[in-house]
Structures are given as C-alpha cells and as structure tokens.
Design a protein that fits this description.
single chain; 6 helices; mainly alpha; 53% helix
C-alpha cells in the first residue's frame, strides 16, 4: 500500500476506528441537538465544528489562503440543535462532501503532499491532512460518547 492509499483509507478511519459517517447514521435530529449533562456541546455542534475546520483545511489544500480565524471560538458558532431533519441531513452531507473532496485530492497524482499549504504556519499538505485526521478522530470520540450517553448507540452498522 502506498502513502496516498493509506491516507485515503485513514480519512475514514480504516484500521483505526469507526467511520465517522457511520457514527452519525441513524441518529434522530432531536437527539443530535440534545444536551448531555456536563458536555459543553451537542452532537450537532460537534459536527458543525468538524465541518468548519474541514472547510478551512480544504481551502488550504486547494491553494487558497483562508484567513486564520481570530478565535477558535468561531468554530463553535452553530446552534445547539438542528431546526429540522433537513438541517441535520445537510450538516452530515457537508461533512461527507468534504471527506469526498479530500479523497479526490488524494486520488490526483498531481497533488503534491509536500507542497506548502499554510505558509504562515509552515505546514505542508501532508501535515494539514494529518491534523484534519487527528481533529476528526478526536471529535468522533466525542460523538460516540455523546451517543452512548443519549442511549443512541450503536449506530445501524454497529460500533465498538
């Protein structure tokens, strides 16, 4: 297996953990917006946070130079709950589309993993990808714990 294939597989958690999209399946929108005692965010907010940073990473990977957010707090601007089922479905679709975009980049042999991605921070495309993977894995763990606390685990495809 080459590096690109390993990075494509790891994008979805292969050989490490549950696919993040599977962890979101079968979750009722009202549960996605329900607070769990002592948890600072709902699943809906965690999902939006993931999409927020994924979009910034994708911009960097595709050659744009997005302005660095003034505060990490901006990544937590989503309301606690989706307005309705379509709002929830749209948020999940945004995450899925971003993952497909990253997968497409990795499938492009012309995409240089070593090229600068964020000049201000001195990171390469490879480093940005690894940060995105770590970020998504961290928040996947939150989603799993929140679903467990809500009594909405496992998802339809199962989970450890």
């Amino acid at each position: 297996m080459n590096e690109r294939q390993a990075l494509r597989d790891q994008l979805y958690g292969a050989n490490s953990h549950l696919n993040v999209l599977h962890a979101l399946e079968g979750l009722a929108p009202e549960l996605a917006g329900r607070r769990v005692a002592a948890a600072p965010h709902t699943i809906f907010q965690v999902l939006h946070h993931m999409v927020y940073w994924q979009d910034i990473t994708l911009a960097r990977l595709t050659g744009a130079e997005p302005e660095r957010p003034a505060s990490a707090e901006l990544g937590w601007a989503a309301p606690p709950a989706p307005e309705d089922a379509s709002d929830w479905e749209a948020a999940v679709a945004c995450l899925a589309e971003g993952l497909r975009s990253v997968e497409s980049l990795l499938g492009d042999e012309g995409f240089d993993l070593g090229r600068p991605a964020d000049r201000a921070r001195g990171t390469t495309a490879r480093a940005e990808l690894l940060m995105l993977y770590g970020h998504n894995s961290y928040h996947l763990g939150q989603i799993v714990m929140l679903r467990q606390e809500l009594g909405a685990w496992p998802p339809p495809k199962g989970g450890d």
